[in-house]
Amino acid sequence: MATDALKNVRIRIERAAQKLGSKIVPDWMLEELVEPEERFSISINVKIPNPLNPLEKIPKKFKAVRVWHRKPDPADIWKGGLRYHPDVTLSDMEAHAIEMSFKSWIMQLPHGGAKGGIAINPYEWSKDTLEDVTLQFAKRAIKRGIMSPRIDVMAPDVGSTKIIMDWLRDYYIDYTGDNIIGDGVVTGKSVGKGGILGRESATGLGMHMALQTFCEAGEICLPKKKTAIVQGFGNVGSNFCKLAGEYNISVIGITDQFGGVYCPTGLDIDKLINFASANKYKTINGSEVISPTYMKASFDELIAAGADMFVPAAMEETITTSVAPKMNFKVVLEGANGPTLADADNILIQRGIQVIPDIYANSGGVTVSYFEWARNTRKFHTNPGILIPDNDETSVKTALQVMFKKNGNALIKVAKKYKIPYREAGYALAIERVAPDIKARNRMD
Ligand code: NAD
């Protein structure tokens, strides 16, 4: 469970603000940037089958939270994932809502960051209970004015899926009768429900585009054929691995919540996806049975074995001050949100390990989600600098590529201007971009 997520993100904003100076970021603005605007706690009551007598139903409560950070313009929406995980806490969701704002601002998306979650382990409950919990959450979130295509648009995150987004969308349209822009209440939906092609793989794909942008700009030098070790094999990790071959990357090690697998000559990703989808917890633990060349490996063993890059794509706070000194990699490409502790940043820098930070590297998901929402709500004019693609995979991929290249190069420029690491540069770029709007909104110069 994360403990320092909020502290980490605040340290990073403060470091970037210090570099930009108080003329760009006055104290009152810094105070706003490190603090969410709204926090919601929702209690969900459902009835579940009594484990002692399945014919009988007994009451059960689940807790949910939602956080809104800051939106530079009143016309913006709040945007961010809805997590299904037993360790969901208000403090972690505050940190992630703040990160979502910065991610959106780097990509020039007209969003205020949001994040939320339901404290539930989705793998431990039946589909009926999950649906019930989701609908009870939606009912309360709509009543409290949280969930709406005009206000707060949720998307899949850890433990939540396309099917959950479909349930939320159906319920919202049934409840409100909004059959005009109701599809836009969530993103990451099925295509038949208003979803966009390529959303499911967008975060993993965007990570490849982020790395490519840094390599093409001469910032990162890796061999033509690269190796990677990946932590997490859910939506982000598995899609990154699936596309790795196209980007000349051989995935040689994967680890998840339950165990890991290693093969120095490269893992067969399709076989691992089949293995994981066939078990209840969607884990690759035990997948060494696939080939005699595969070995069971722990996280510590994989970190020590090393590769060209490490790709954290699981939970926050993986790279701690005790992990960072043992890492045998040239690059960290952050798929997860907040995988590196602020104190560990310094160790990676001292060791010459370059980090492509989460707030840029994993922004493919929110970017394609924005395309989806803009199509659903016909809000094509919100930012004339962004081309909203047609609903086909090639157009979506082309539009995403444009966004990664343009904004990645802007981030590199800021890093060079202030002579700061890429993470700090990401925060600084985001602030530079929204500071004029925030000042205008507060009627301050
Ligand atoms: P997911 O639920 O689909 O997969 C999570 C994976 O992490 C699973 O393989 C799980 O076994 C593994 N995991 C969980 N706890 C772990 C632990 N303690 N140690 C090692 N592995 C562990 O989630 P996801 O959607 O792939 O999200 C992964 C990360 O990426 C999260 O930080 C999320 O916030 C971030 N993210 C997701 C998206 C998206 O579009 N889904 C977009 C941007 C960022």
**Spatial gap, N to C terminus:** 41 Å
* Secondary-structure arrangement, i.e. CATH architecture of the largest domain: 3-Layer(aba) Sandwich
CATH homologous superfamily of the largest domain - what is it? NAD(P)-binding Rossmann-like Domain
- Strand line-up of the largest beta sheet: 9-8-7-6-10-11-12
Overall morphology? globular
Q: Assess the beta-strand content as a share of residues.
A: 15-25%
Secondary structure category: alpha/beta
Structural Rg: 21 Å
CATH topology of the largest domain: Rossmann fold
Keywords: NAD, Nucleotide-binding, Oxidoreductase
GO molecular function: glutamate dehydrogenase (NAD+) activity; nucleotide binding
Family: Belongs to the Glu/Leu/Phe/Val dehydrogenases family.
Protein name: Glutamate dehydrogenase
How would you explain this protein's 3D organization?
- This protein is of the alpha/beta class.
- The chain is globular.
- The chain has helices at 5-20, 27-33, 90-106, 127-143, 162-176, 202-216, 235-244, 269-277, 299-305, 342-350, 358-361, 364-377, 393-418, 422-441; strands at residues 38-50, 53-68, 77-84, 111-118, 152-156, 226-231, 249-255, 260-262, 295-296, 309-312, 331-333, 354-356.
- Helix 1 (5-20) packs parallel to helix 3 and helix 6 (202-216) packs across helix 12 (364-377).
- The protein has two domains: 37-193, 3-Layer(aba) Sandwich (Rossmann fold), CATH 3.40.50.10860; 202-361, Rossmann fold (3-Layer(aba) Sandwich), CATH 3.40.50.
- The strands form two sheets. Strands 9-8-7-6-10-11-12 form a seven-stranded mixed beta sheet, sandwiched between helices.
- The protein contains 14 helices and twelve strands.
- The model has no long low-confidence stretch (mean pLDDT 96).
- Strand 3, helix 3 (90-106) and strand 4 form a beta-alpha-beta unit.
- The site of nicotinamide-adenine-dinucleotide has 23 residues, from helix 7.
- Belongs to the Glu/Leu/Phe/Val dehydrogenases family.
- Residues 196-442 form the Glutamate/phenylalanine/leucine/valine/L-tryptophan dehydrogenase C-terminal domain.
